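#help-structures
NK: newbie question, is this the right format to request a structure? protein is LPS export ABC transporter periplasmic protein LptC
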Amino acid sequence: MNLPKRYIIAVVTVFTVTLFFGCESNFKEVQKINFSEFVPGSDADTVNIKYTDSGRITGVLKSRKMLDYSNLNFPFTEFPKGIDVTLYDKNQKRTFIVSNYAVSYKLTGIIDLQGKVKITSETGQMLETEQLYFDQKNEWFYTERKFKLTDAKGISYGQGIDFSKDFKVINSQRVSGEFESDEQL
């Protein structure tokens, strides 16, 4: 009786090993079917894009590298070598933006600026931080990171700020520094 039992165990073992190695290549093929490559739909070197509204320039974006991922479910454009942007208001006053890296999300209209972000208004106000978001629809900047704000009244430091594109409305949190105030104590 031991011979048939050993024979059955040997046959089952050979069958199991054959099945295991036979299915391995099929499993890898199935994995490849569900794999989608994360590659840009297009890329460009040295871009200079002008944005217009009714024939009037509203912005100029310059970058050494642009990767467009509009082929994904959540499309975005990446600027891995940074951006240099000039925004124009209705009176053609300019706001200058520089960052080491940027991502523009098409569906939300949010731009994520990172790495030595510096925004300067034509009137001399300047904000510096490591990360800043820009809501294109509302023309509003915001961050929860530490910042340095320089203007005619002085220099202030803080963590957390949001402000309009033209620096006319500024809401800051946890502020310290030396600046002049028109308010009476």
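mod (FA): yep, format's fine, and the tokens are attached above. The radius of gyration is 28 Å.
NK: thank you!
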